[in-house]
Amino acid sequence: MKARKRRDIENFQPMYMNIIDSSDMSYLDYGSQDSGLNEIFSSLESLKYELQTMKEPQGTISNPARSCRDLHLCHPEKPSGEYWIDPNGGSNRDAIKVECDMEKAGVTCISPESNFVRKRKWTGENPGSWFSEYKQGGGVIGYNVTEPQFKFLRLLSSKAEQKFVLSCHNTVGWYDETTRDYTNALTMKSYDNTEVTYSPEETRFAIAEDSCSGKSSDGQVVVDFNTRDVDILPIVDFKINDENAGKYGYSISDICFYG
Question: Which residue, 4, 51, 180, 197, is most buried by CB atoms nearer than 10 A?
Answer without folding.
Answer: 197
